[in-house]
Amino acid sequence: MSKISKFFKGGGSAASKGRGGPSPQEALARLRETEEMLSKKQEYLETRIERELAAARQHGTRNKRAALQALKRKKRYEKQLSQIDGTLSTIEFQREALENSHTNTEVLKNMGYAAQAMKKVHENMDLNKIDDLMQDITEQQDVAQEISDAISNRAAFGDEFDE
């Protein structure tokens, strides 16, 4: 089955049909294939337009009828090229929107995963225990400071006594 018929007939993997729709990766791949096909068609039409223009110039005033026919074909090709340009723009917009949507979905999934991990980490923590621990640390720091102050004071033998 050709790529074009797969695209229009909705041919694809059985996995995507069973889920009720294609995955973002499958849809992106198809959009890229379609973009590639349309780009090739653009190139083909551009060469055809150049050929018809060359044919019209070649016939010039000698064979007006053949020159007019070549110009008419050129005009048809230009119309097709214009339609393909519009279609290609629409497909590019769709692909970019799908890529952004897929990125946002992945970011959201990862944020949820991180939230679950944080919840698991905090699961064993009790705010009262943390508060008690912080008070104990503060008390021990105060005790350590008192000890340090007592050790660092000069030993003034007899200076501290009141006569």
Quick overview of this protein structure:
This protein is mainly alpha-helical and 163 residues long. The chain is 82% helix and 0% strand.
How does this model look, in words?
InterPro entries: Snf7_fam (IPR005024). Residues 1-35 are annotated as: Disordered. It is found in: Cytoplasm, Cytosol; Late endosome membrane. The protein is mainly α. It has a domain at 24-113: Orthogonal Bundle (Helix Hairpins). The chain has five helices and no strands. The chain is rod-shaped and about 120 Å long. The model is unreliable at 11-16 (pLDDT under 50).
Task: List the defining traits of the structure above.
single chain, Helix Hairpins, Snf7_fam, coiled coil
**Cα shape:** rod-shaped
Radius of gyration: 39 Å
Return the CATH architecture of the domain at 24-113.
Orthogonal Bundle
User: What is the average per-residue confidence, as pLDDT, rounded to a whole number?
Assistant: 85
Strand share of the residues?
A: under 5%
SS field, number of helical segments? 5
Series of secondary-structure elements, N-terminal to C-terminal: HHHHH
